[in-house]
Amino acid sequence: MSDIETRVLEVPGARLRYDIRGDLSAPGAAERAVFLIGTPMDAAGFGSLAGYLTDRPVVTYDPRHVGRSERTDDAEVTPDVHADDVHRVINDLGLPAVNLFGSSGGAITGLALVANHPEQVRILVAHEPPTVSVLPDREQLEAACRDIHQTYQRDGMGPAMAKFIALTSHTGELPKDWSDRPAPDPALFGLPSEDDGSRNDPLLGGAMLTVPTYELDFDALAAASSTIFLAAGTESEGQMTARAPSVIADRLGSELVLFPSHHGGFLGDEYGMPGQPAEFAEKLKELLDVP
């Protein structure tokens, strides 16, 4: 499965690029295929995980305004927009339905897709969706997300990313005075303090305002024919990205599934923070191969 076929798909407002590993036309392959999605992470982040899923076709893509996918308008990019993009990619693949693994913002995209097009998803594994809208401390979490975005617009990537790392690594409910506390030093995280003037980061520039605050359609999710697994990493206990899927699972009447490692547990060394991709892949296969 070393060969990768890359396709280009024109959709309203964007030109998407997606990749296919494996033969979707082989007997039984379409039913076992898995679509791996992240947001705002692009397909490159799934290279290691895909390497451990060679027993089935794997589809990855770059969300609009990320990696190789280009925006052709300046409209707001929300989880519903991403879900519509994935819906169109599935149609372009010619598949009636897929198994889908979504991590972080990709998990929210997956949940939006199931709510809007449940017939297209057999199994969804939603790994650590950062959905602050379901948490009791949503007010201070939303304020912190706005502050990160505003810091990026004012001071650039380093100071904003330092605040992002501090927020996502915090355990327990966020204190009410969080946004009033002294800002972390970017140098502590190996980040630059100087502003290079760029403002094109898809996470800090846009996703911070549209992804965490997304309101899930619980009625549609409960009524969907799709099998939905909410998941979190064992090392993420107490963090916002693990607390959120726990609440969502409870509201849908299911149990939280624990995966090895942290928020990026499927990573090899793509971004210098490796998880446990081999063990992660085995856990994912268990869920995807449920009879």
From TrEMBL:
Question: Which InterPro entries does the entry mention?
Answer: AB_hydrolase_1 (IPR000073), AB_hydrolase_fold (IPR029058), AB_hydrolase_sf (IPR050266)
Domain AB hydrolase-1, chain residue ranges per copy: 55-136
Task: Report the GO molecular function annotations.
Answer: catalytic activity
Offer a single GO CC term for the protein: membrane
- List, alphabetically, the SUPFAM superfamilies matched: alpha/beta-Hydrolases (SSF53474)
Domain of life per record:
Bacteria
One Pfam family, please name it: Abhydrolase_1
Q: What is this protein called?
A: Pimeloyl-ACP methyl ester carboxylesterase
Organism from which the protein derives: Amycolatopsis marina
